[in-house]
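Researcher: Next entry in the queue.
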Amino acid sequence: MIVDAPWYVPNDLIRRDLKMSTVKEEITNYINPKGLAFDWVSDNLYWTDADASKIEVSNSNGSVRSLLIWENVDKPGDITVDPRSGVMIWADWGADIRIERAFMDGSSRKRLVYQDLSTPSGLTVDKSSKLYWTDADLSCISFINLDGSGRGILLTGASIPKPSASDIYQDHIYWADWMGKTIERANKITGKDRTVLVKNVPDVMGIKIFHRTRKQMISPCLAKAGCSHLCLLKQLRGNEHTCACPTGVKLMDGTTCTNSPLNYLIMAHRMDIRQISLDVPYMADVVLPIHKLKMATSVDVDRKTGDIYWTDTSEDSIQKSSPNGTNRATILTTEIMAPEGIAIDSTGRK
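Model: Structure for this entry, 350 residues:
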């Protein structure tokens, strides 16, 4: 049903894994999250979802979640960001295996590496704007400049059987090898001075260097740069940025998001109620924060108040709630069995 919406809840919300209706489920909002990257300059979090075929971004606390890339992406895996150059880089393990780059607002997208790849991961960028990555199937650590030039192999061969992750600190590259069960380092330019730091550590799939000497930079996004919801860094040197909105919400004037989708589809989905905005160029469901549903089978919206009404055949009841999950109430629960359909007369108040 398409309705006019006087409300919208920004989207640190919710997807439930529908494996067993009798199991108490943790509220998530993911299908198969793979890669994670933190923009330490603007305090934003980026991640990929391989099964949902999308890349998302939010504030570091998980609030104001926004869909960033959804077209021509198959199985996005590892992701990294480099605020110094204003770029994000990710690997795609789908039918067309590749490494791509874009500005951190998702614009100016470009294929960076698309040949001689198998399982690219461990993406990391050093201060000279050189990208390094591991490839477990090809048993190598490679590098390339962010402009696409200067591709080369730093380490390869039987001594580096399954590198799965990497990071850069000063003059060294650090990596984990899940077959060799080691964490090692070597000179990032020559590949020499190789040292095994940890032995017999199984199943290491990701590593990161934490250090307090990383240069602090001033980002226009630290003060949101006039953005009503989310500010994404684009070019740090030119103070360029882009304002973004919660998933499904439209950006009106370059800085301000609408309070809600003007048109959307709402659906009862057993243990949750979902909304799909029709105002944006993508289709993404937002699960509303109405919890502890058992078998929601039908739903409607009061156009006057914005309240959501639904039937629950497991509890033999009709209930309602505000879109943000508050003011929940049971409307009918006696002398009612397996209610299947519901309709709201918003004008006649029935």
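Model: DSSP finds no helices and 26 strands in the chain.
Researcher: Noted, moving on.
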